[in-house]
Amino acid sequence: MRSKIQTVLMAGTISLLTVSLITNPQACLEASARGLDMWWKVVFPSLLPFFIASELLIGLGVVNFIGVLLEPFMRPLFRVPGTGGFVWAMGMASGFPSGAKLSARLRQTKQMTQIEAERLVSFTNSSNPLFIFGAVSVGFFANAKLGILLATAHYISNLLVGLMMRFHGHKEEASRDNKQTASLRKAFSALHRKRLEDTRPIGKMIGDAISSSVQTLLMIGGFIILFSVLNKMLSIIKFTTLFNYGIEYILHTLHVSPSLSAPILAGIFEITLGNQLTSQTQAPLLHQAMIASFILAFSGLSVQAQVASILAETDIRFKPYFIARVVQSLIAPVLTLILWKPLYEKPSTHIGGAIPVVAQPAADTWYALYTYGPVMTLFCLYVYVLLLVRKI
């Protein structure tokens, strides 16, 4: 009976969405164009190099080398293999959903157990500094100093989630917590052993890395466009009005400006739109920063759908990741409130209205992506098509 109800609900929801698309073609086109613009100008060119480099590092055994060296650090703190340190670093540098892709890849190559992969994916998916400083703080808020506060709250809350998730499935793998020491000899042995196992020539390895990375990014682009349209349609059919009332009541109870209810709801679906709308409200800047932290931590259903799609190729369950996002979205705004005075209001952190040196490169890179990103995207898609045709 339950499965029948789920079938009816899903069929009804898709039918309603289809009808709204047919009756509002102009709004659908605008929302699709907005999602596509974000994907081919920013997401594709910014993530592709990281994806290709990660695939090559895994194939060449460098990740195994790093894993042996980081085992004494990652195992006691997060109860994941040392290779998780590589995933954590790459996830922070490249942003969503790199951590999920790399965690799934390591699970597919049997370099960690299911429970370890679930712990790892819960805290290795985060916004990258480029997005926090370039897009959110400079692009939306026109306030580079705010990026320091948002980034600090975001990464500290992410770290705290990782420490909490170490208890996930602890009974099943208590016997794996053995003390190990870092050894360059063992690390080089692991690197060489992995390289011997992978018999592909370097040219084939590069081609496979490009194909796999582009396929993942095409999937990500589809989700970005889909959720951009979905958010727009829900707004048109007034489906979001009821939820706005509920969010306004919660914000009023917490003494936060109720004008932030619409940005919160938009951010629950899509992280970029949510932060943009937050910056356009008349709420106090502290309240805006707390909501921006909430949206960055939750990451939006669009990103979560991308992660779910990537994890579906493995036995890694999505539920622990979702719980981790909810927990982080509760911690991050509190940290923003705590760090507001020492990081934002402290006079020494802001002299003469200058943009902090940390934010300036991120802002410049963000605008450069908007200018040259489409050219890189088209070139990489052209290379991908050539590789695909050659393979066929």
Number of strands: 0
Q: Main sheet, how many strands, which sense, barrel? A: none
Overall tally of domains = 1
**Radius of gyration in whole Å, from Cα?**
22 Å
General description of the model:
By secondary structure, this protein is mostly helical. The chain has one domain (24-169, 182-391). Helix content is 79%, strand content 0%. It has 17 helices and no strands. The longest helix is centred in the N-terminal third of the chain and has 36 residues, at 25-60.
Concise summary:
By secondary structure, this protein is mainly alpha-helical. The chain has 17 helices and no strands. It has one domain.
Question: Notable features of this structure?
Answer:
single chain; 392 residues; 79% helix; mainly alpha; 17 helices
Topology:
Blueprint: H1 2-23, H2 25-60, H3 62-78, H4 83-94, H5 98-108, H6 114-123, H7 129-140, H8 144-165, H9 184-197, H10 202-236, H11 240-253, H12 261-269, H13 271-279, H14 285-298, H15 300-311, H16 319-345, H17 359-391
